[in-house]
Amino acid sequence: MSKSRNLLIGSALALSTLAGPAMADKLGLGRPALPEEISAWDVAVLPDGTGLRPGSGNVETGEEVFAEKCAACHGEFAEGLDSWPVLAGGEGSLTDRRPVKTIGSYWPHLSTVYDYIHRSMPFGAAQTVSVDETYAIVAFLLYSNGLVEDDFTLSNKNFTEVVLPNADGFYPDDRPESEYPKFRAEACMTNCAEGAPKVTKRAVELNVTPTDPDGKPAGTLPDIVAAAAEASAEAAATETPAEATPQAEPEPAPEAAPADQAAAPAAGPHPELIAAGEKVFKKCAACHKVGEGAKNGTGPMLNNVVGHPAGKVEGFKYSKPLLAMAEEGLVWDEAALHHLLENPKAFIKGTKMSFAGLKKEEDRAAVIAYLSTFAQ
Amino acid sequence: MSDEQMSDEPATTKGPSRRAFLRNGALAGAGLVAGGTAARAATPDPLITEVQDWASAFGDPVDAAPYGTPIRFESHVVRRNVEWLTESPVSSINFTPIHALEGTITPQGCAFERHHSGAIELSKADYRLMINGLVDQPLVFTFEDLLRFPRATTTAFLECAANGGMEWGGAQLEGCQFTQGMIHNMEYIGVPLKVLLAEAGVKPEGKWIYAEGADASSNGRSIPMEKAMDDVMVAFFANGEALRKEHGYPVRLVVPGWEGNMWVKWLRRIGVYDAAVESREETSKYTDLMPDGRARKWTWVMDAKSVITTPSPQAPIRHGKGPLVISGLAWSGNGKVTKVDVSLDGGRNWQEARITGEARSKALTRFHLDIDWDGSELFLQSRATDETGYVQPTKNALRDIRGLNNVYHNNGIQTWWVKADGEVENVEIA
């Protein structure tokens, strides 16, 4: 105890010494924050309801908003698609081998649900859910967890009356009492265990580590000696005409772009480019689905998009600016997609697409190639 | 190239000498493995006896790389992710190649990243920091304002609370990059948070701060006022240069000794409250489920831990028996590492390793143990002790207390099984 206290004092002293005597006085830097600015940025909501804005929303509205903005990842019943978070169910599972941590089974405070949805969701389009919509989504999530009836309306007035089932399921870190005394015993140095070690678990048996092309764990340090031998073999094989292969002079270097285009087969994009595109597309996949049975999510599904007119995916609510551009005949050809992907907000002023863009041309080309494989 | 043409040496002698060196170099290397310590060159090494290209012609001019990246021979030393871990790479994590690094400072370019909504591009001109809540005067600072406060420095490790989490149920990933690589250690320069808080004037009822970022996730975390007033820093330089984008450019929070999720990047607001906000990142995540179905919250401190970085699965022994350098990292969120022990026999017997360089509080500490390896299999383990007397426990000792559903704060002892051929596996042993 006294030791850690000394530590605190010690580090405080060290900092103040470094910062110098000016620390004691205010420097008069910065400017007063305006109420509008505080209101815009301080959106935190605390368990006691501090920070709640006036508003309300009911289960029915919440279901609609959830279906539109959340279900692409969390599923229509908040059951979680793929590995996206499950938001409902799981009650009584916290002692199971595979606990299901949901709002109903694990989260201690309803304020957390409101706060997180309002500030950080939907994934890829944060801060687009209004106060009333947030109340509605939270009401729907309470309903999907069986905690309220379908006629329930949540508002800033009744918010703190809702108590989540696991409200008492948490206690502050007790390691200093429950663990530290055990682990502060003198460490054993000799004959600390009987017999020879027996292997009980091997990571290799699970085979889930990313690997290099040679099958070794990714990033394995190269064998310097083997590399030299390989280089030697290569040199012996290829270097005979070495003197005859002059290094390219810098001046007549051919333009890279036309060469690439010439090399691209007319039949379609190169498989490697498509594979690269599949990787890059993971940045898009939170909002856009492709492939068989792809549905609209935060963004429209993207089957059959390349080379087709914009704004035509059935059932997707496009932004007005995009619809206007579609009206004017926007077609998602490669050039248009390049422009969009480079900077969506610049290409469609006022788009709902809240993606910073793909700055690298090769990334854009790869994604377009990948998307072009989803044509009917 | 033109450099060659400018050389005085006749071009014809270049090719043969290069080929000869490569061939003989390989042979000499092979001899080393076979001969162990008593390596003796059968023929003169052409790398020495013949004039090499680089010893004769020019290298790169200055400015060949105005901001350099590592030489191509080090291209394997990069951050890597494990794709199956997360659904989306913008809310994901990758791992520092600690198996390929030495010393204690992690270069920013290969220090692991964890983003919740991607690494954003925020300029110094667009940067604002707000302090509001239970303060006398809510304030807004520009980046320029921050540069005018007295500066402090601190070197600190940042470890993700989930570092080693995939190993909780048993050995799973091959290599310390993946098993212990959610960590980095940098030297920061910035303004102590308490200086900025004093500028706004914290009211007596202000017991907690809540720090949040400017990115779409905002990733807010509550920090008790005692810690905020102790060693927390609002940092804008790391390892002598501006923070990299992925580490929170232009400003991040530094919370020495505490879990990485609290080191909010792209810091935009410090709210002062009378209670913890209990955000998503401190309730639904970063809480520790215990066997009785209840959970620990506010488990901020990263306890003492260590790992041998070489040899390890990604850094096998290739030189055969004889002198072997065992190198590793140790750290503690509760202070300085005072001692690191290494076992060659799976924890039956231990010997004290050498701490190389300075052991700093809440910073990575490098240790080495130099042994004469006889070529037999080893079960390598390391065990850190910190200045509070805490001794790094075994994984099973932690499981005995925390059960099997814990994910965070796995600081258990790592076992590497070194085979006679020098290959290394991640295992658990009894």
TrEMBL record, chain A:
What sequence ranges are listed for the domain Cytochrome c?
57-145, 272-375
Renumbered residue ranges of the record's region Disordered: 230-268
Signal peptide stretch: 1-24
User: Which of UniProt's keywords are assigned here?
Assistant: Electron transport, Heme, Iron, Metal-binding, Signal, Transport
Q: Does the keyword Cell wall biogenesis/degradation apply?
A: no
Q: Where is the composition biased (Low complexity)?
A: 230-248, 256-267
Q: Which Gene Ontology terms cover its molecular function?
A: electron transfer activity; heme binding; metal ion binding
Q: Which Pfam families match?
A: Cytochrom_C, Cytochrome_CBB3
What is the protein name stated in its UniProt record?
Answer: Sulfur dehydrogenase subunit SoxD
Q: Which InterPro entries match?
A: Cyt_c-like_dom, Cyt_c-like_dom_sf, Cyt_c_1A/1B
TrEMBL record, chain B:
Query: Which protein are we looking at?
Result: Sulfite dehydrogenase
A Pfam family cross-referenced in the UniProt record is Mo-co_dimer
Metal-binding among keywords = yes
What InterPro entries does this protein map onto? Ig_E-set, MoCF_OxRdtse_dimer, Mopterin_OxRdtase_euk, OxRdtase_Mopterin-bd_dom, OxRdtase_Mopterin-bd_sf, Sulfite_DH_SoxC, TAT_signal
Q: Which organism is it from?
A: Gemmobacter nanjingensis
Q: Cytoplasm among the record's keywords? A: no
Which parts of the chain are coiled coil? none
Residue span of region Disordered: 1-20
